[in-house]
Amino acid sequence: MKRPALLAAAVVIGCALLGALCGVGWWLWWKPAPSGVVYQHHAFFMPDEEFRATGLYVAIAAPVGLLLGVLGTWRLRRDPLLAVLVLVAGAVAGGAVMLLAGRLLEPASALALARHAKDGAAIHASLRVDFGPAWCAMPFAAVVGCLGVLLSIDPHAAREMASQRS
Questions:
Q1: Domain containing 95: what range?
Q2: What predicted TM-score, i.e. pTM, was given to this entire model?
């Protein structure tokens, strides 16, 4: 029982570290920050510039989650339930750490800067992702990767691997 718990902890920690690396990549890809203007102490940006941070987050998180799901399930294919649970938990941790890393590296909040800026002043956007579906990109892609591998495994060979392990 110790081995699966250690393996699960190692996978989740590894996914979180990968999420931190992805967060730095997200921040680097996002630079330079989109510019907008201040009007009546509110920041205004072009619609595509507001979506840019979310789009880049999904463009990084989804392929990484898919790769995590495929490689992790292939490695843990002897215990498919453990593989799915651990990889989804790891992808959630990785996605959260990616968001946190990006937020820690971003410049000051555009909303806070706009409160003290004059009308017409140029302001840079904040690196953020609105709460919602984008946050699910890495876990959802990991599940798709898990399912792809699990559906491609011969059920008889999987039973033989499981019986050899016991």
A1: 36-165
A2: 0.81
